[in-house]
Write a structure and sequence with these properties.
4-stranded mixed sheet, globular, 5-stranded mixed sheet, alpha+beta, 422 residues
Length: 422
């Protein structure tokens, strides 16, 4: 194994931002809208889906951060008409590339092989409800695509009980089971309402359903995860893309390092201290990483990010890489929140400027930036206010806001600068 490349931490941050299409050189201005959306998925491999719409659905915000204003209807076409994308479980519920279907097919096959006999409470419940399972399968075979509300249960069954929101929702719970087995796919969506269909009917005929061994799966998925991350440790890779699905990861990483697919790197901070952990880079990105170290003309952007954005979705990676301590407070009681319900991180160049508590009032067509929290030592970076104004206005345009309003929980000079620009 070669000696690690010694790289400044700043270059690693810039590589991560570049690989996530969030620097100025990654903007896809010359692409048609559909091709641009596809290029984003090819770079990220997955984009998280989340139903919360305090500002906008996270999959749309993630695309907006990279593309600017675009037609969300094109994403639906790519998913449900062109079927170049599909919904599945990556590091969370996600939009994924149909090119990666073999990876998900492998994981669903593994789930199907053990899901009804693994001794879990779900497996026992499914076993108790053979008649319900058979009825649901027959409904799809005879009626075609269905939402959970379209299925009427007329067979005796044991209701699903839990302490969460799924309690008593036996049909949706069984649909999820069939989804993870690979028998069902999401064939259409209207807001949070999913329409399901049999995979054998909805999957495009050209989709690759080749079976692979666990080692083949890992050797294909791991490099994709690392390329999306830029640099990363084994822990980072395990948490990204096919989260917690890499069997014998350390052995595969050693094999990929031995054949030169990945290279070790040593990250050094501004005080010349070596960052803890064994960091890696894909061999195809090593030259770019070294070039970013020497590139004094590197240009970033100031842009708002979804709180679930791929760049910052791994909370434990944010602190060493960006020095950014970020936690989503959606499920935190109001009295315990530090920043707000739906807070958008602010990426400025190759660092995090701060975060802004944001809400879209769709009845009044108003976009509210309720509070601005700058990172320590960033209040003096007032020259970035114009850039922040620009991304705020751009977000307002994308959301169809007629007015943008500023709250008072902001540094005074920053609020004045933002207000004059808006």
């Amino acid at each position: 194994m070669p000696s690690p490349l010694k790289i400044p931490l700043k270059a690693a941050r810039r590589l991560a931002i570049h690989k996530q299409l969030l620097d100025s050189h990654a903007l896809l201005r010359s692409e048609t809208d559909k091709r641009a959306i596809r290029k984003v998925l090819e770079a990220l491999r997955c984009i998280q889906i989340d139903p919360i719409r305090a500002v906008e659905r996270t999959e749309l915000l993630a695309l907006w951060s990279r593309l600017g204003n675009f037609d969300p209807g094109l994403l639906n076409e790519l998913l449900y008409t062109d079927r170049l994308f599909f919904e599945n479980w990556a590091h969370c519920a996600s939009i994924c590339l149909m090119d990666d279907y073999p990876l998900f097919h492998h994981r669903m096959q593994a789930f199907a092989a053990t899901s009804e006999t693994d001794g879990s409470r779900t497996a026992q419940w499914v076993k108790q409800n053979g008649a319900l399972l058979a009825q649901i399968r027959e409904e799809f075979r005879t009626r075609g695509p269905l939402a959970s509300q379209d299925i009427t249960v007329d067979v005796p069954h044991v209701p699903w009980h839990s302490t969460g929101w799924t309690s008593g929702r036996s049909v949706p719970r069984m649909l999820d089971h069939l989804f993870f087995r690979g028998e069902l796919m999401v064939a259409q969506r209207s807001g949070n309402r999913k329409v399901w269909h049999l995979t054998d009917e909805f999957l495009p005929p050209w989709a690759d359903r080749t079976s692979m061994t666990p080692d083949e799966f890992c050797r294909r998925a791991v490099p994709l995860a690392l390329k999306a991350l830029g640099t990363g440790t084994a822990r980072d890779i395990r948490q990204h893309f096919m989260r917690r699905a890499y069997p014998d990861l350390e052995s595969v990483l050693a094999s990929l390092a031995a054949d030169g697919t990945i290279l070790p790197v040593e990250l050094v901070d501004s005080d010349n201290r070596t960052m803890p952990g064994s960091w890696m880079v894909h061999a195809e990105d090593a030259e770019m990483l070294q070039r970013l170290e020497a590139d004094s003309n590197w240009e970033g952007r100031t842009v708002l990010l979804s709180p679930f954005d791929n760049l910052i979705c791994d909370r434990r990676r944010n602190l060493p890489l960006f020095g950014f301590d970020f936690t989503i407070e959606i499920y935190v009681p109001v009295v315990k929140r530090r920043y707000g319900y739906y807070v958008l991180p602010i990426l400025a160049g190759d660092s995090m400027l701060g975060r802004v508590d944001t809400e879209m009032d769709r009845k009044r067509y108003e976009l509210h930036f309720k509070a601005l929290y700058l990172e320590e030592g960033r209040k003096q970076d007032l020259h970035l206010a114009d850039c922040l104004v620009r991304t705020m206005r751009d977000l307002g345009t994308f959301l169809g806001a007629k007015r943008i309003k500023l709250g008072r929980r902001m540094p005074v000079k920053w609020r004045q600068a933002l207000r004059s620009g808006l």
